Predict the structure.
Amino acid sequence: MPSQSAVSQERMNSASRSRVDTTGHHPPRVSPRGLYRVVATAEMLTWALLIAAMIGKYALGAPDWTMRIAGSIHGFVFLSYCVSTVVVWTDQRWPASKGILGLVLAVVPFATVPFERHVDRKGLLASRWRVVPAGAAPQNGQEPACTAAERLLAVILRWPILSALVLVVLVALLFTVLLNAGPPTEWFN
């Protein structure tokens, strides 16, 4: 009779095998709905952090570094939210008006979570990716990539960890460029 640890190990191995498709590809663990919910919430929370830092600086005389830190965190998460919006918009085939609204609402404090809930209620956030990862066979209603944006998304879904790292680096580079450009209020002066 096998030991309990051997039975537990076999269950774990079996569960692991069931998550691998016929090409040996592990499907992404993050869904469009989960990704968008996390990033929209983070964007809203960093708005709160930024507003608190502004109140601290202008009303309570807090040091400037509090505002720089809060602004930097919010700026990075803001850009991450924008990237996530484009990724989910592409995968879920939102109408252009819905995708643009999602991007514009990132500028409005605390608007990203109500928007995320709105698109979820409308059925525009699925629990699995519509676009099949590059090199994998379509499963459960997935579709092959048709447009250039979908082909890029298929590559991202094929290598989600590497893609996340690359996207974080790209957001960090863009953030650095924008940080060096100075506050947005001074860009056109």
Notes: The mean pLDDT is 85. The helical segments are 4-18, 32-60, 64-92, 96-104, 112-121, 148-158, 160-181. The chain has seven helices and no strands. The radius of gyration is 20 Å.
